[in-house]
Design a protein that fits this description.
Layout lengths: L3 H15 L3 E2 L4 E4 L11 E4 L5 E3 L5 E2 L2 H7 L4 H15 L1
Antiparallel strand pairs: 1-2, 2-3, 3-4, 4-5
Helix pairs in contact: 1-3, 2-3
């Protein structure tokens, strides 16, 4: 299980890249999609399971590291996210 401090680190990284997200249930956070630029927050990122899905353009993924690369996060931010989820898997 992901610690609340680690969860907040991941949320802060995505908030800085995608704008402030809206927390939803079960670890989900809604953002504006960087791919289809829909005017509502339709991109859902689940911080716990690493699931990503846009309900408009159907962009999806199962790994926050690869998604982070697609949206152009810095290497330092990608490493922080990777380290958090590597520790959980061990």
């Amino acid at each position: 299980m992901i610690r609340s401090t680690d969860k907040q680190i991941v949320i802060d990284i995505f908030n800085s890249a995608l704008g402030v997200g809206t927390p939803l249930n079960n670890g989900d956070v809604a953002y504006h999609c960087p791919f289809c630029h829909h005017h509502k927050k339709k991109l859902i990122i689940n911080i716990i399971t690493q699931g990503i899905h846009c309900f408009v353009c159907n962009a999806r993924g199962r790994n926050l590291k690869s998604f982070s690369k697609r949206i152009g996060l810095s290497r330092n931010e990608i490493d922080k996210i990777s380290n958090i989820y590597i520790i959980i898997c061990i």
